[in-house]
Amino acid sequence: MPDAPAARSSPPPPDFNALMRSVANERSRPAFALLFNHFAPRLKSYLMRSGTDSGQAEEVVQEAMLLVWHRAVTFNPAQANVSTWIFTIARNRRIDMIRRERRPEFDPTDPALVPEPAPSAERAIELVQDGTRLRAAIDSLPNEQAELLRLAYYDDKPHSVISAERGIPLGTVKSRLRLAVERLRHLLREEGT
Amino acid sequence: MMIRPSHHPAEEFLLDYADGSLGEASALVIATHLALCPDCRNKVADLEAIGGALLDAERLEPVSMPCLDAMMARLGEPQPLTRREKPPQLTALPPDILMIPEPLRGYIGAPLSSLGWRQLRPGIEDVDLGIGQAPAQTRLFRIMPGVVTPRHGHCGTEMALVLAGGYRDEQGNCCRGDVFIYDSTVEHSPVADHGEPCLCLVVTDAPLLFMDD
Predict the structure, then answer these.
(1) Which residues in chain B have Cβ-Cβ distances shorter than 8 Å to A72?
(2) What is the pLDDT of residue A5?
C-alpha cells in the first residue's frame, strides 16, 4: 500500500484543530484571526443565502465567532471537526437572532439522558478525514439530490415548505433527501480505509 | 437497563432539525427524543457533519474590514448568555418532572402537578405549554391506564413523543422515547397501557378532529 501522499496542486488547508488548541489554551488572538479569516466569509455567504442582508449577516457572523472564542475550551475534536462545530454554532445563532426562536437541544450531562451503550472509538479516528471525503461525496451526488440538500441546509425552510414552494411533490423531496443522506452516511460509517 | 425507543422520526425531520429549519415546537419533540435515543443522536451528528462539509465548500462572501476590527475588539467582552443557556433552576423537583429529559424539562420548569391540567374526557387531560408560533400548539397529554381515546383524525401534522407509560393503536405499541408523526391520512384511537398513566408531548399545527364531536 503506498504510504506517501502524492504532491497536491492546492496548498494544504490550515490545521484547524491546532488553531483551536491555541485559542483554547493560550487565548491566542492570531490563531483566532486565522480561524475568522477562513470561516467568516463562508459563514456570511451561508447566512445571506436565506435572504439575510450583508449587514445583518456580518452581525450574526460576529456573534457566532465570539462564541467560538469563548467556547473554544469546550471544543472536542473527538465529537466533531471544527467546520461542523462552527456550523452548529452559526446555525443556532441564525435561529436565535434572525428567526427569534430558542433552539431546543438535549443536554449530554442530563441524568435522564439514555447513554450510548458503547461509545464507538472508530468514529473519532475517522472524523479528521470526514470533511474532505464528504465534500467529494456531495459533489458526486446526482444534481437533483445535491441541489435539494443544499436548499435544506441554506434556506432555513423545512422539507415540507421546500416542496410547496418549489412545486416538487413531497414524496419526491423526501426520497431525494433520503437517498442523498443515505449515500453520505454510508461513507461516514464506512470502516476506515 | 434503560429501554431504547423503537419508533423514530423519519430522516427528513432529523434533517430539518440538524439544518436548523424546524420550528421550535417540533424541534422540541425531536431534541427530547434525541435525549432518549442514542441511535438518532448519531444520525443527527452525521447530518451536522454534512452541514460542516457544506460550510467548507461554501463560496466566499468578503467580510468588511470594520467587521474584522470590531470582532478583534470584542474578544475582551464577557461571555454572552444565549437563550438556551439560562442558569439551571436549583430548586429540588419531584421525580415526575426529573424523569422528563432536557430540553423539555427546562421548558416545563415546574412540577407536573402544578400545571393547569384541563380534563378533555374522563381519564384524558391536557395542558398547553405555550411553546412555538401559532398555529403550532404544544401540549402534554396525560391518559389514565386503560383509557381509550376517542377516534380522531388530523388536519395537519401531529408529532407525538411518549414520555411515560405507553399506548397502542392501529400502528402498534409505543413506549417511552417513541415518536410518531401523523398526517391527515391517519385516523386512530390510541388506548393507554395498563400500569402508570401515559404521558405524551404532542405538537400539532392544526386542531385534532374528534369523530364524536
Answers:
(1) none
(2) 46
